[in-house]
Amino acid sequence: MVKMFEEFQKHLMEDKNPSLYFDEIINNKDIYTLYPYTLLRNLIETPQSPVHHPEGNVWKHTMLVIDNAAKRKEFSENPIAFMWAALLHDLGKAPTTKVKKGKITSYDHDKVGANLSQEFLCALTNDEALINQVTALVRWHMQTLFVTKNLPFGNVKEMAADISIKEIALLSECDRLGRGGMNDTKICEEKENIKSFIKKCESQLLSSK
User: Fold this and answer.
1) Which residue ranges of the chain lie beneath pLDDT 50?
2) Domain segments of the chain: what residues?
3) What NCBIfam families does the entry give (predicted)?
4) Which end is more exposed in the chain, N or C (fewer Cβ atoms within 10 Å of the end residue's Cβ)?
5) 71-130 pLDDT, tens per residue?
């Protein structure tokens, strides 16, 4: 377990495109039949809405996200936690994804994913600071959507007490850009959404003082 943790972390931190490593081993190592690695393997069988995720299943999305994160990790306050969060951010989609009347949903995958990320890392390391940081990033990674869309699931105050807003914004940027069909126009739109998220969070926190 320790060896694989170190191997994963090495590729997350050193590779320009970590997806090349993870795509290569996901089908070629027996370790993915063992817990907690099965949590990652399950993402291959987890579908996503083709409207929002034309790239396909959650695994494909995750690979795009970690490659985007690798390009931006230097801007993170904690690059190691940031890269682990990018890899684990959608673990909650496997158990929460439902298909009803042709619509694919994964409600509460952020909350479920936080618990699964904690379990995953606890099985591999005793680094409590890392585990807590990653868990918080996964727990709050959907707040960008909730806050910018003024949805009732937004909770800026609690999020800000748990994790840096700018860290969530950075992870969210990688998450939102980690999709198929991203052109220059869509990329600009997503970056504007991230800026809007930060401004709204700062405004809400200021008004609550």
Assistant:
1) none
2) 2-207
3) HDIG
4) C
5) 999 999 999 999 999 999 999 999 999 998 889 999 999 999 999 999 999 999 999 999
